[in-house]
Amino acid sequence: MFDFLNPRDLGRLAVLLFLAILFIQSSLSKILDYSGNLEYIRGVFSKTFLAPMVGIMFPVLTALETLTGLTCAIAAVALVLGEARPALLGLALAALALLSLFKGLRIAGDYPGAASLAAYFAVVLVGFVLFSLR
Question: Which end of the chain has the least Cβ crowding within 10 Å, N or C?
């Protein structure tokens, strides 16, 4: 059962809500300005071997971010209702999405951008630790 006075439970909830906000906002931004974001991503990868694949990578990434955000939001509700298992799927999807973004930015040579993802990835790792505690 979720305990609003338990720091571990509050930490778990905070991680899930943080990730839900992060990925829902990011995916909404991509959806609401799809063509602008697609052109930006085309420019980022224009000088890489991934340039011809941007047309498929961008919608896949958008779908992954949407799925991750919604899964984390649902997992946060489930956690408050006493069920922690959906959180592991949300955390796994968040890790996959961030690793995908990280790899893409490294390939594109955007090392500062890739480095900035480390803070988000740390939140995911904290989530895994919090959910491993009894």
Answer: C
DSSP 20: H
20 in a domain, yes or no? yes
pLDDT values of the chain reduced to their tens digit, one per residue, 134 residues? 888 899 999 999 999 999 999 999 999 999 999 999 999 999 999 999 999 999 999 999 999 999 999 999 999 999 999 999 999 999 999 999 999 999 999 999 999 999 999 999 999 999 999 999 88
Look at residue 57 and tell me if it is in a domain: yes
Contact 27, 72 (CB under 8 A): no
Please report, for residues 21, 23, 58, 59, 82, the alpha-carbon distance to residue 110 in angstroms, rounded to integers and kept in the order given.
Answer: 24, 20, 17, 21, 41
Q: Give, to the nearest 10 degrees, the angle between helix 54-80 and helix 7-32.
A: 150
Residue 2 lies in a domain: no
Domains: count for the chain: 1
Give the residue numbers spanning the domain of 105: 7-132
Answering whether pTM is above 0.90, one says yes
Q: Is residue 1 part of a domain?
A: no
42, two tokens: 């085309």
